[in-house]
Design a protein that fits this description.
Order of helices and strands of chain A: HEEEHEEEHHHEHEHEEHH
CATH class of the largest domain in chain B: Mainly Alpha
Radius of gyration of chain B: 30 Å
Structural class of chain B: mainly alpha
Number of strands of chain A: 10
Strand order of the largest sheet of chain A: 6-7-8-3-9-10
CATH class of the largest domain in chain A: Alpha Beta
Helix content of chain A: 25-40%
Number of domains of chain B: 2
CATH topology of the largest domain in chain B: MetI-like fold
Number of helices of chain B: 13
Radius of gyration of chain A: 21 Å
Oligomer: heterodimer
CATH architecture of the largest domain in chain B: Orthogonal Bundle
Order of helices and strands of chain B: HHEEHEHHHHHHHHHH
Distance between the termini of chain A: 37 Å
CATH superfamily of the largest domain in chain A: P-loop containing nucleotide triphosphate hydrolases
Largest sheet of chain B: 3 strands, antiparallel
Distance between the termini of chain B: 27 Å
Structural class of chain A: alpha/beta
Helix content of chain B: 55-70%
Chain lengths: 298, 361
């Protein structure tokens, strides 16, 4: 049907992926399995998930709800222990949480008793960096997320988008090998979200960091990622590790480009199988409230 | 598209939240007014009952008993007596039957409800009255003594209870090891330890401090543990991904995160300490404000009883307000407060409006 396949890569994009794959592997996930629940009633959240992430790569993880996206990122962070399989960071097995894997959560997790700057200094200070050096570090990261003016504010004085920018700066101030982001913009309004996505690409361009980004927003995934890891639910398995054919630098105009649309169609086939046959869920909803004459809103 | 939401009336926009807005803070002036009313209204009610003779006043103070030679069931009525109104009326019927002028009296309230000015006078004279026996304390000295007992009882309790509670709230080992027994002892009323405390520490201040300690320590451990447990787990996870080890997690995340809540707990528990003080001061040698209260109660000096109650209430209210004020400076991250450091600086949001093109609040 479609004249343009998501597999069609322009020469520049193909060259970019060739180079990308020559970079060293930062994160190696091998046959990762996670089982929750009791022995009599186990729930398989992740089943033999394997993939690799190269240095300074931007990988997005998408999938229908319940596919184990959050479990995967919590395993990567070391907040959960895998049932079996292995997680290697720079070839070393991940054992518990650590400063080498920064994380930005969906909820706001800034420390409310610390100022913005003290929040960013937290990681370096815990590592034993001197106050002056940590302050210098924090200043750099705060200016990268353009929040220098709010260094002495407290988190409760910031908007949601600003809080998440501080959270990103706080994670990056630790110079982690990899930045894990669990739907970090999920709670933000559409406009702030778009701004944050631009911000994130800007940060990623300027910092030596590899990003694994969980989202359920397909446009967000295509806009941000080099490669997209698609998970299938129940149990969570890898459906595809897709190379995004949209060239960089990215812009919002590309949302209508054939590469972008082809990628989006492919992702939708995985995530909403059957939706292209025309059965819309909206029509199946019962009508709960009847409108009356004079209720026209247009 | 959709019909616009009903615009609020102009009045409510300019005046801020209405009087009856659900779960909305009121404007500062209204808040101050209500605070004043909170005390003025009960005082007004008390004054009304005390000074308006037609309100309640179930007794008559006899000023003129009438002709005492008129025999009858109630001929014991004498000037200066405080009698019930029914009885007074019955005597007047007897006098009227004998053709004599009626007895006179003034409506009075029971002695357990003195008028505001009587309590005010008692409050003042209580401090001016020299001690009855040499070596006894003036009232302000007694009050100071009470405060000292509270202070030491509470400080000792906090010195052990806070760390233990925080450990119980953070480490399952401590929680499982200590909380069951603490919970068990908590059910024993602190005064039952009074006799034991006197046997161990004699009649001086030590047993009193011990009772205040016992009364506050056991609930404190449980309350502190509970508040510590309520620290948002997401903060702990965030700290772990920032490289915190266990010791740092306790010292740099759990404790600071729980501190505002713990401070609130301490304020409430300090109030409880006063409850135990009144019992504590009556064991062994009676002392402090409770001894004054006990004396007044024995001699039915109810104006003094009210005065003593007021003193305790005022000290409590005063210390709590001071602590609340202090708390706002200590915990600037709690709703809208400022740290002492930033007290004289404008807030970032105010000094840089919209500096980030629409993202700024």
């Amino acid at each position: 049907m479609s004249p343009f396949s998501y597999r069609n890569q322009s020469e520049a994009v193909a060259e970019r992926f060739r180079k990308l794959k020559q970079r060293p592997v930062v994160l190696e996930v091998k046959d990762l399995t996670k089982r929750f629940g009791t022995e009599s009633n186990p729930v398989l959240a992740l089943d033999n998930v394997s993939f690799e992430v190269h240095r300074r790569e931007f990988v997005c993880v998408v999938g229908a709800s319940g596919c184990g996206k959050s479990t995967l990122v919590r395993l990567l962070a070391g907040l959960e222990q895998p049932t079996s399989g292995s997680l290697l960071l720079d070839g070393k097995t991940v054992d518990g949480p650590g400063a080498d894997r920064g994380m930005v959560f969906q909820g706001y997790t800034l420390f409310p008793w610390l100022t913005v700057k003290d929040n960013v200094m937290f990681g370096p200070r815990m590592k034993g960096m001197s106050r002056a050096a940590a302050r210098e570090e924090a200043d750099q990261w705060l200016s990268l997320v353009s929040l220098d003016a709010f260094a002495d504010s407290y988190p409760h004085q910031l908007s949601g988008g600003m809080k998440q920018r501080v959270a990103i700066a706080r994670a990056l101030a630790n110079s982690p090998r990899i930045l894990l982001m669990d739907e970090p913009f999920g709670a933000l309004d559409a406009q702030t979200r778009a701004q944050m996505q631009r911000h994130l690409l800007h940060i990623w361009k300027n910092a030596d960091v590899t990003i694994v980004f969980i989202t359920h927003d397909l446009d967000e995934a295509i806009y941000l990622a080099d490669r997209i890891l698609v998970l299938k639910p129940r149990p969570g398995r890898v459906a595809e590790l897709l190379e995004v054919p949209v060239p960089r630098p990215r812009s919002t105009e590309q949302f209508q480009s054939p590469e972008f649309l082809a990628t989006r169609r492919r992702l939708e086939e995985w995530i909403h199988p059957g939706s292209e046959t025309g059965t819309s869920h909206v029509d199946e909803l019962p009508r709960l409230r009847l409108t009356q004459v004079g209720d026209e809103v247009e | 598209m959709t019909t616009p939401a009903r615009t609020p009336s102009k009045g409510s926009v300019s005046k801020g939240p209405r009087w009856l807005s659900l779960r909305q803070e009121l404007a500062p002036r209204r808040r101050a007014l209500l605070f004043a009313l909170a005390f003025a209204l009960p005082l007004l009610l008390w004054s009304a009952v005390s000074y308006l003779p037609f309100l309640w006043h179930p007794l008559m103070e006899v000023t003129y008993a009438g002709d005492e030679t008129v025999a009858g069931d109630y001929d014991y009525l004498a000037s200066g007596m405080l009698v019930e109104k029914d009885l007074f009326a019955a005597r007047n019927r007897e006098l009227a039957a004998a053709g004599k002028p009626a007895a006179l009296g003034i409506p009075r309230n029971p002695i357990y409800l003195p008028a505001p000015h009587e309590v005010a006078r008692a409050f003042y004279t209580a401090f001016k009255t020299p001690p009855a026996r040499q070596g006894d304390l003036w009232l302000h000295e007694s009050l100071l003594h009470s405060c000292r007992i509270i202070f030491w009882g509470f400080i000792l309790s906090a010195a052990i209870g806070l760390p233990l509670g925080i450990l119980c709230g953070s480490l399952m080992l401590f929680s499982r090891l200590f909380e069951p027994f603490v919970d068990f002892v908590r059910y024993m009323p602190a005064p039952v330890f009074g006799a034991l405390a006197v046997a161990i520490w004699g009649l001086d201040d030590a047993p009193k401090i011990a009772v205040v300690f016992i009364g506050t320590f056991f609930p404190m451990v449980l309350v502190v543990a509970n508040t510590t447990r309520q620290v948002d787990g997401a903060l702990l996870e965030a700290a772990q991904t920032l490289g915190c080890n266990r010791r740092q997690l306790l010292g740099h995340v759990i404790i600071p995160a729980a501190t505002p809540g713990l401070y609130r707990d301490m304020r409430i528990l300090l109030g409880c300490a006063w409850t135990y003080l009144v019992v504590a001061e009556l064991i062994g040698a009676k002392s402090g404000i409770s001894a004054f209260l006990y004396q007044a109660q024995r001699y039915k000096q109810f104006d003094n009883v009210y005065a003593a109650m007021l003193m305790i209430g005022l000290i409590g209210l005063f210390t709590d307000q001071i602590l609340a004020l202090l708390g706002r400076f200590l915990f600037p991250s709690e709703n809208g407060g400022r740290s002492l450091k930033n007290l004289f600086r404008p807030r970032a949001g105010e000094s840089n409006p919209g500096v980030l093109g629409g993202i700024a609040p």
